[in-house]
Amino acid sequence: MKIGTLPRSAMIILEKLVCEGPLTPSGLHEKSNIPLRTISHALKELRKHDLCKRQDNLADMRQPLYYADRQKIEQLKIDLNRWRTERRVYFRIL
């Protein structure tokens, strides 16, 4: 998989999940000001590429939690750095 095929919104969402831990779609909306519809699409793309996973939220079953798959991200770290350089997007994956 090439990181460059992911939309920019998906990369921003991935960054939020890595830095701030498991979040609900509405939590991602609050922290990133990205519309919920765009967040849903970004999460779908991230899950398709196994970069994030879904977890049941025991506090509110209507809002699942999403978290970054750090092992998969480590495998793609070189591609991610290349993508950030090409697109001039500057953030870091911990």
Q: Please write the CATH class name.
A: Mainly Alpha
Please, how many helices?
5
CATH-scheme architecture: Orthogonal Bundle
Helix and strand sequence: HHHEEHH
**Separation of termini?**
20 Å
* Strand coverage percent: 5-15%
* Strand arrangement, major sheet: 1-2
Helix content: 40-55%
What class, by secondary structure content?
mainly alpha
The third-level CATH topology is Arc Repressor Mutant, subunit A
Overall domain count: 1
Q: What name goes with the CATH superfamily?
A: Winged helix-like DNA-binding domain superfamily/Winged helix DNA-binding domain
Which term fits the overall shape? globular
Mean pLDDT level? 83
Low-pLDDT runs: none
- Most strands sheet: 2 strands, antiparallel
**For the CA atoms, what is the radius of gyration?**
13 Å
Number of strands: 2
